[in-house]
Amino acid sequence: MFKWQTRLLINNVNNSFCLFVLSFFFFFVNISRFSRRLGEIFDVSTVSIYSFVNLLFVLRSVLFYLLPLLLLLPLLLLLLLLLLACFTLSPISFPFLFNF
Fold first, then answer.
1. Does the model's pTM come out above 0.85?
2. Which of 13, 17, 34, 100 has the largest count of CB atoms under 10 Å?
């Protein structure tokens, strides 16, 4: 049973990595196509449109990928402080924390 679960976990990790690589590739393909179309519509050089659209997509990726991590950071700090308190406080003050 454990071997089967491990194999399933490894397959899930491999599949998610492949999906990440494919989405990364299509992300940049779509940026180049979108910037070319904007350059044709507005008659602007493709390089400036490309850099502007690239900046927008980078900001979007920062918001959608790093914002949840930033929201979890206070919770992780609170958990760290709780663990620190558990190990530094005396068992007499908080006996329920040290019931082994």
1. no
2. 34
